[in-house]
From TrEMBL:
<protein>
    <recommendedName>
        <fullName>Probable allantoicase</fullName>
        <ecNumber>3.5.3.4</ecNumber>
    </recommendedName>
</protein>
<keyword id="KW-0659">Purine metabolism</keyword>
<feature type="domain" description="Allantoicase">
    <location>
        <begin position="185"/>
        <end position="313"/>
    </location>
</feature>
<comment type="pathway">
    <text>Nitrogen metabolism; (S)-allantoin degradation; (S)-ureidoglycolate from allantoate (aminidohydrolase route): step 1/1.</text>
</comment>
<dbReference type="InterPro" id="IPR005164">
    <property type="entry name" value="Allantoicase"/>
</dbReference>
<keyword id="KW-0378">Hydrolase</keyword>
<dbReference type="InterPro" id="IPR008979">
    <property type="entry name" value="Galactose-bd-like_sf"/>
</dbReference>
<feature type="domain" description="Allantoicase">
    <location>
        <begin position="16"/>
        <end position="165"/>
    </location>
</feature>
<dbReference type="Pfam" id="PF03561">
    <property type="entry name" value="Allantoicase"/>
</dbReference>
<dbReference type="InterPro" id="IPR015908">
    <property type="entry name" value="Allantoicase_dom"/>
</dbReference>
<comment type="similarity">
    <text>Belongs to the allantoicase family.</text>
</comment>
Amino acid sequence: MTPFTSLPDLALRAYGGSVVAASDESFAEKESLIRPGRPVFRPETFGNKGQVYDGWETRRRRTPGHDWAVVRLGLPGVIRGVVIDTAWFKGNYPPYASVEATAVSGHPSPEEVLAAPWTEIVPRSALKGDTEHHFEVADEGRHTHVRLNIHPDGGVARLRVHGEVRPDLSAYEGLGLDLAALANGGLVTDCSDEFYSTPENVIAPGLARHQAEGWETARRRDRGNDWLVIRLAGRGIVRLAEIDTTNLLFNAPGAVSLTGLDGEREVTLLPRTRLQPDTPHRFRLDPAGPVTHVRVDIYPDGGLARVRLHGHLA
């Protein structure tokens, strides 16, 4: 595991990513590049286009040039690393790949994105078949799209674009927002335990469809409790907390508390409060000063589907 892979995958389909254009997808669809989860493969599974692959695969190129796919990041931001995964592509993987990035404001068409100036963030690099390739990125720019170039053709199972979310929050000026949301720049910076699933899930977009899409800890056998710390999108005042235990029927925490952190200052936002299993909870919070982080304590252990902290930027 490379350190940058602990950061969110900005391109993930579940976070709003989209493969908006590709030079070719004759054998396997481009949308597979940003699917959640590991690629799967069943040998001798043939369709009208040949062996079925869980990835993006282009035809054998007979002309000069190379193939490419453009991905709109669901979460625009600063890219810290890229993973190009050729899982299951053994005789049909591209021998080389490179990655470029660009930033285009608004809601551009694919043609407008392709016409934008691009910056190379991963130079042309050799690939192997059936292998995850990790490339650190040093560029400090904020990007909205990436272009995966494969030289000259072949198949790639997954493209992961890990980085720090840098959203445009100007649309919320004068309005409230979810200060904890990953899409707004929130980040889980620390937690006590992530045995079953990553704590990052609790601030992910949308609702958890099942238990694995939340955060769940191992069973505690001591007198302590589990917790996580969320860095807010910006220093702000939290007025409403949503603590969702949906899908957690027999492993929800018995209670939760929220503590705001602002430098050395700590303030109780929500005292220890009972939770119910498989239930969205909403708690109005008493006015408190602005904070930069919120610590979520669960008692004694268990799981949460989502945490939403609505308020205003200070």
